[in-house]
User: Fold this.
Amino acid sequence: MSKLRFNITMTLDAYVAGPSQSVENPLGEGADHLHDWAVKLKTFREMHGDGGGGETGTNDDVLREAVENIGATIMGRNMFGGGPGPWREQPWKGWWGDNPPFHTPVFVLTHYAREPLVMQGGTTFTFVTDGIESALEQAREAAGGKDVALGGGASIAQQYMAEGLIDEMEIHIVPFLLGSGARLFDNLQDSELRLESVRTIGTPSVTHVKYRIAK
Amino acid sequence: MSKLRFNITMTLDAYVAGPSQSVENPLGEGADHLHDWAVKLKTFREMHGDGGGGETGTNDDVLREAVENIGATIMGRNMFGGGPGPWREQPWKGWWGDNPPFHTPVFVLTHYAREPLVMQGGTTFTFVTDGIESALEQAREAAGGKDVALGGGASIAQQYMAEGLIDEMEIHIVPFLLGSGARLFDNLQDSELRLESVRTIGTPSVTHVKYRIAK
Assistant:
């Protein structure tokens, strides 16, 4: 059965976005450099259609492995963007332009129903209003035997973690501080979540730790 | 010149102690298992005079390296214990009994003056009231060419991090959550602290990441 795999970049003080996220500042204040480790990599540039070039090496290998064998993606409304609440008249189509970097069916968890959106390059957005297990089921079916990627944000990840639905999570820990913002592990005090590390790869600018949820 | 080295165990959600620290519950609520990775190790048992035995292997190697070549230790008042405020009539002598596991001169940062305490096994407690740089200077002198260990807690570590005084810090990241309590990286928003990882060692129960402060 296809695995649900979660990848996210987190600061050493456990934030995945800064405070005051907005359309102008999607990752929040102070988070401009959060994904520096990834944006210059060859695999990142390929996903985003940024032409050739980009760094290769350990970090690129990790990123490439994270995006390989993915048949579908799940994300939360906040990651999809456009602000909370009902969809507006000219509804938001995501941050990524006409050819988003997913190139798979993407299932967006939201309280507000909406017709599916077909984008260029193989990305489709389907809006799921009946919860995380429904989104996972639809994503697995769409993935056609490949794995499902959980994109984020923190709130969606917490829900999947709390239910023990994540098969594999890799946290890319960057060695600086945000101080406030979206904490990856909020709302999990009662979950007794325990993880077990299955692989660790260290580089000067980012530490990649892959975990599974301990039984 | 002797290095100031900082070692601490931190949960994945960036806490080094739970809430409501007290004499009965020195590490705070929910933190009983925080140091599990270390307490069963051969080196830990030796430091604490727990007799022979104890696990060897990767984690033990890391712990042994952390305590090797240490000539003096610095800690904060909260780590030394006994509650805040002026020393009482029968003043607190630390958590560790008559033969504490430091076996070096220990410099305790406090606002309240007190005569030095000589314990068994080579540990002496000297109470420093004139700040972190004074404590560091005295510790370096006492260390006799060996390194100085910074013991904690979070508050003291933040002060040394903010001033860029730590040469090497190794964080032992344990894969569970405390949810609240003492955050290692509090009070550092304005410091623009950036670290660079110099070594990473992964095991299932703990990830050891050694950093230096980036220039």
